[in-house]
Amino acid sequence: MKAHTKETQASITPKGAVALLKEGNERFQKKMHADRDLLEQVADTKSGQFPFATILSCIDSRVSSELIFDQGIGDIFSARVAGNFVNEDILGSMEFACKLAGTKLVLVLGHTACGAVKGACDDAKLGNLTALISKIKPAVEAVTEPSDPSSRNSKNIDFVNEVAVKNVHMTIDNIRKDSEVLREMEDNNEILILGGMYDISNGKVTFFES
């Protein structure tokens, strides 16, 4: 499998980009990885890159976008921060990736049993982590059930995972609210902004409906 070129990138539609990631995740789950020479792709991309998707995911060591979507060198832009939320820097990176570098999809990818989400559920405090967790707390507050405070913590994994899903949706809302560039591109059908969840127990990505 060769690295993408300007021509192959241009031929991919936003929905086509989603399909490529879905196909890659299926290969990952079935241990049927695409036949690619990564060093050959290094050579292919030395004079330029033409990725088809931008993925915002958590720093969790189990959630490498390149691996779980079976992608190679030059295929995707990968932005990572604990809790997969956006700030000015990540939005700027996404705007570069889509408007200037030509990617067709922004995927916000949460995952089950997320440690950052657990920290937000538990109101953890530790150095700079305190400020990071504050970015996720709105998602905790937005999940209203269960209402019993004793069940709204990291010991309740169903609650944690519901908060993780809500955090993905709220991150997408923030992308559209805070990035005029990406919002206009989506309105013009140049890109899709989509969410998904990765299950750390089986390797499956569930894509949300746009």
TrEMBL record:
The keyword Repeat does not apply. Belongs to the beta-class carbonic anhydrase family. Signal peptide: none annotated. It comes from Aquimarina mytili. Keywords: Metal-binding, Zinc. Pfam families: Pro_CA (PF00484). Its cofactor is Zn(2+). NCBIfam families: PRK15219.1. This is Carbonic anhydrase. SMART domains: Pro_CA. Binds 1 zinc ion per subunit.
